[in-house]
Amino acid sequence: MIRINEIKLPLDHPEAAIAEAICKKLDLKPHELLEYEIFKRSFDARKKHNIFLVYVVDIKTHKDKSLLKRFRRDPHVVETPDMTYKMVGYAPKNLEMRPIVVGMGPCGMLAGLMLARMGFRPIILERGKQVDERTKDTFAFWKKRGKFNPESNAQFGEGGAGTFSDGKLYSQVRDRQHYKRKVLEEFVEAGANPEILYIAKPHIGTFKLVGVVKRMRATIESLGGEIRFQSKVKTVEIENRKVKGVTLENGEFIASSHVVMAMGHSARETFQMLYDQGVYIEPKPFSIGFRIEHPQPLIDECRYGEFAGNKTLGAADYKLVHHCKNGRSVYSFCMCPGGLVIGAASEPGMVVTNGMSQYSRNERNANAGIVVGITPEEDYPDHPLAGIDLQRKFESKAFELGGKDYSAPGQLVGDFLAGRSSEELGKVKPSYAPGVKLTDLSEALPDFAIEAIREALPAFDKKIKGFAMDEAMLTGVETRTSSPIRIKRGKDFQSINTEGLYPGGEGAGYAGGILSAGIDGVKLAEAIAQNILKIQ
For 415-436, how does the pLDDT look when each residue is reduced to its tens digit (9 = 90+)? Predict the structure, then answer.
């Protein structure tokens, strides 16, 4: 097949316009175009008065070879690469020990799924509950109808932290082997909308993602995999720097020489346990800040002008960064168009915020993290796990400022910039559940972070008019942008000092979102298969 890049068409073009553009580009007669498939659809909104769609299409004709030869100097006409996923191997019939996967987030789920597809019958251990039960617990907490459950919340349980998010499925990782495509295909097979295979910034949305997770679980089990919920790993058993298995909190020991640690970025007790076991861990940078909310129509109009509200474009997003005078960088993180700010704590007595959207993205507010980068060298140099202590410090302070009932501290942007406490809400009503207590957020983060955010907001206003509007809402705190540690691994995906331990995903410091975590899960499964089958 032939791949054509950069086919540009108006937003509301008729379907036939794609085939017409292909024929015009290649000088084909309509009957010579046998078929075409959209590989990618994005849009160019750099000029708000002239927003258009940009397609990458794969086509088939009877004269592909001659066309490729004829357009060999045109970088927009190339041969379609082979994106078919190929298994690295299949489990032997006499498999002695089944691999263990710790964590049922995107990384663990894809690692378990691929191991199951290769016949290794993995055992997946998840400390939280099945996604339906977890959803009930989490929503009850948000609506103040139930107590906070440290084992069943927005961080822990089937689907991982990504379940209660926008369900974004895009990543900037380099992907010459088409792992992204494989992960997206698995999501589609599990019930996600097929459009995620080609739109530039695909997302599933929380409620749809719940169904996808359940169907993936069913597939793993149908292939011989075993999934155990409410099965918290107390200890990874290590002897002579080799993994021997795991011991659960209930005292049960499960033997295995291959253990995937895909526990997510909030599994703090697990990080401590691995460190105490001598597994090499190093600190890594992450970011801290607040969630900011604006009326979604304001963002739509600023980004799309007269095209605001167009169904093809949907709710507008943004990506902002500002380099401050004090040497810090402030940027937008995990932007959720038409979404909600949610409570994402994983430990009692702490407040953590995150963003979430449904597939429709039709809530009244846009929200995003506005966060400041911090580093081990400057901010937590004392210990490999010192970043966790820093997170806990700010999360505990947010709990105190919010009134110690899991409400979050909040402040209007105008008051934040003026350095005064907020007394009443404006027209932007905060969406955070369980609730918001107005206060002075300058106490919620270090002085350098407050200084940096106060400098960045007016700078962002120059890019999106109204971003620093007085009545925009800040809610604190955002501390789980990424893992504060990295469990360092080698080229074989094993811990550099513990044979048989395969750290992966966000928690181990090797991913940043659902798609990149899923990709890492596929690679971990391949690494285990290659190790067992002795494939170089």
Answer: 999 999 999 999 999 999 889 9
* SS3 (DSSP) at 414: helix
Q: What is the pLDDT of residues 484-528, one digit of tens each?
A: 999 999 999 999 999 999 999 999 999 989 999 999 999 999 999
Q: What sign does the dihedral 29-30-31-34 (CA atoms) show?
A: positive
SS3 for 380?
A: coil
**Angle at 220 (CA atoms; ends 218, 221), nearest 5 degrees:** 65
Q: How many whole angstroms separate alpha carbon 292 and alpha carbon 371?
A: 10
Cα 164 to the chain's mean position, in Å?
10
Name the pTM for this structure.
Answer: 0.94
Q: How many CA atoms lie within 13 A of 285 on its CB side?
A: 10
State how far the Cα of 125 lies from the Cα of 389, in Å rounded to an integer.
Answer: 26
Question: If DSSP codes are grouped into helix, strand and coil, which group holds residue 395?
Answer: helix
Q: Where are the beta strands (DSSP E) in 413-486?
A: 436-438, 473-478, 485-486
Q: How far apart are CA 530 and CA 89, in angstroms?
A: 7
Sheet strands side by side (includes 77-79): 35-44, 52-60, 2-10, 77-79
Q: What is the pLDDT of residue 209?
A: 87
**Token digits of residue 122:** 């993995």
pLDDT exceeds cutoff 70 at 381: yes
